[in-house]
Each structure stands twice: as structure tokens, then as C-alpha cells.
Specification:
- This protein is mostly beta strands.
- The chain has one domain: Cathepsin D, subunit A, domain 1.
- It has 2 helices and 9 strands, in the order E-E-E-H-E-E-E-E-H-E-E.
- The N and C termini lie far apart (57 Å).
Length: 128
């Protein structure tokens, strides 16, 4: 597919005026987005939990996880984010794309809107 970048705006969920514009590498192989701890802390985004991640080479590392408000081309929503440490790239992961209803066009190397999916299960009336 090759890689490409997407222009995004991230903001503190509780203080949306605290925001930053970034260009992130799109990585659909990453579950969560990764953004520099320095940038996240600068927006007063705090870690809420700590999770393990398995790297492509099999190594496991742990990172702090927080939440932020993400905007891409007018699509806006709350997404989880990993706090990237120095030397780690900032990326836009699959969870953020799915949350905002976006998919990758691998030929055009850009993001396109799609409908979210729902499996509707109807409950049957109880038999008496």
C-alpha cells in the first residue's frame, strides 16, 4: 500500500481550546494512534491506563493510554491514544479511523468516508 500522511487536529476532551494541528502517518496495522508524550502533556491530556503492545518483531512494550478529541476533514470524535516515547513515530491507527467512519484508499493514498456497521439483533417476544 505504501504510507501516506493525514492532517489532523487533536484536542483535550475537557478543554477543546487546547489543541494542535499535526500530520500523522496512517498505519492501519496499529490498533491505537501514537502521539508524542510531549505533545499530549502540552495539551493537558493525562494517561488513564497502561496497556501492553506487541510489535511486529514480537517484542512487547507497555505505554500509557489517554483520550483525545480527533478531527480529520470535518470528521470529529473521541479516540484513545498511546503516549509515544522519545524516538517513536506519531501515527494514526485503525481505532481512530473506525471511530470516525474513515477507511484507507490505498490507490489514491487518502482517507474516505464509509458508513459504520451494526449487527442488529432483534429480541423476540417472550413466550407465555
Amino acid at each position: 500500500m505504501g504510507s501516506f500522511q493525514a492532517k489532523v487536529r487533536i484536542a483535550n476532551l475537557e478543554k477543546p481550546e487546547r489543541s494542535a494541528a499535526l500530520s500523522l502517518v496512517v498505519d492501519t496495522g496499529a490498533t491505537l494512534s501514537w502521539i508524542s508524550r510531549e505533545i499530549l502533556e502540552g495539551l493537558d491530556i493525562e494517561p488513564l491506563s497502561h496497556l501492553p503492545f506487541t510489535l511486529a518483531d514480537g517484542r512487547v512494550l507497555e505505554r500509557d493510554i489517554g483520550g483525545l478529541l480527533l478531527t480529520i476533514d470535518g470528521h470529529r470524535g473521541p479516540v484513545p491514544v498511546a503516549f509515544a516515547e522519545p524516538g517513536e513515530h506519531s501515527i494514526l491507527g485503525a481505532t481512530a479511523l473506525e471511530t470516525l467512519g474513515l477507511v484507507v484508499d490505498p490507490v489514491g493514498k487518502h482517507l474516505i468516508q464509509r458508513n459504520l456497521l451494526l449487527l442488529l439483533v432483534r429480541t423476540s417476544p417472550q413466550l407465555h
